[in-house]
Amino acid sequence: MELMTELLTSDFRPLDRKAADFYLSIVAQVKPDALTLATPCPDWTLYGLLRHQVSQDEGFAAAARGDGARLSAWRSGDLGDDPYAAAETSLEMVTRAFAETPLDAGLTLPEFGDGPVPAALAISAHFVDVVIHAWDVATTIGVPWEPDDELLTACLKVCSMVPTGDDTRGPGLAFARVVSSADDADPKDHLLSLLGRSPSWRP
Description:
Number of domains: 1
Radius of gyration: 16 Å
Helix content: 40-55%
Number of helices: 7
Low-confidence stretches: none
Shape: globular
Number of strands: 2
Mean pLDDT: 91
Oligomer: single chain
């Protein structure tokens, strides 16, 4: 419970902004002919993955404004003809919304159940989402994914609190099932495994 207390009282907004910049640095390397590639997320091509992240950004922004229960707010992301510009716009939107939200406010997040989620936890969840989807994009297009120690340590801390039961992990749920990893796995590989990714995945 000490870690949960820490997460509930931590302000992840600066880290979330840093993660957004990290994600955008990778999306900037996406070429148009890569958008049809398969990704580590089996339901999505790279186009679908980028669109999903835009939708998530818009959904979290709506939740911060008190409108998270409206499912369409989480499903209407549009890449238009410039995926990078769409990603930049949606991340700016959610950054502004989080900046205006008290950390103890209750946010409605449909993927996390019916009850309100403290904004501090919601922001930490968005933070992890952005960092891990940066890996999805990077490994799909074959570029490095190198989160710094601050991002990596914070992600591992948040992910250690994510339940691993079948009611929260698996197809159609918020998180993929944990992938086994060696006890001496690199911290980056350990993070990927915690979030259901195989570090050896290649398109």
